[in-house]
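Hello,

I think I submitted the iron/sulfur cluster job twice by accident. Can you confirm which output corresponds to this input? Input:
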Amino acid sequence: MHEALLYDKLPGSRVKCHVCQWRCAIGPGKLGVCRMRRNIDGILYALNYAEVSSLAVDPIEKKPLFHFFPGTQVFSLGTWGCNFHCKHCQNWQISWSDPSFLERDSTTLSPEASIERTKRQHCQGIAWTYNEPAIWLEYTLDGAKLAKEDNLYTVYVTNGYLTPEALDTIGPYLDAYRVDVKGFSDTFYRELAKVSRWQGVLEVTERAQQKWGMHIEIVSNIIPTMNDDDEQLEGIAIWIRDKLGELTPWHVTRFHPQHQMLHLTPTPIATLERACAIGHRVGLRFVYTGNVPGHGNENTVCYSCGNLIIGRIGYHIDIVGLKDSRCKFCGADLNMRG
Ligand code: SF4
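Support: Only one job matched these inputs. Its output is below.
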């Protein structure tokens, strides 16, 4: 078992974890909200260190990251548990799990082995994804340090609920931060994931960009009747523009009924197009629809000269207008890395 980072010892063999914004106070023998950190005799252990639930070689576009090493393959790993238990989670079989899954279904993969696999599979980088990567902070930190030694890029696909301290721990070794801004109201976050202080997601994302210079892309999964109102969509778009900059990509993705939200319908395409229109009206330069293969809003188009830069149909991409990360036609800055 691996002793956790970022916790305080409290009287009575209790501990307080500072990895994510729940900041769980955990009694002896108990688990945190993520169900993967256990207090054993006053010491906090990360039960899921090196315990893998899912791994795959994915196109970077699947994360989705559209402005970060386009066309490359990324070695993608997930663990067990999560600090959010969203009602619509598409990976609920792993994110709603408890320690019993570690004995039954887990694959153990050391950080060194994960980097070996990344290179052997001809990937240019590694992503911790599928469930919240901060809940195996210790493992992702060890892997990220090794990845940097091998000039591999590193990606967190995150719900953004980690603490500033956790971000600052992984920050020196993390290149891209693909973060969900799931909605823009207290009611929505409380209803979806029982999270009340969701604004911390915004603060830590701003820190990821401003303190650590990470490449940021935002995803909002648009759920009918829950976060598809103009007020929330405009709130997200304005926050991106004002705090991260107009060149930050925003992906508005189609919801498909999952898990505890089977009673809702898939997002109408017209709703996604309305979200895109709001993003553009507010001044964002790159707004994409997701989970709608073949939709024209998957393409990257230069905001300055209107030429096609990257054509996309699903995960098939065609890079036609990039030169040194800028528009090859007019030289505009496209906020493109790699
Ligand atoms: S990672 Fe978050 S949910 Fe898990 S024990 Fe720590 S504070 Fe609680």
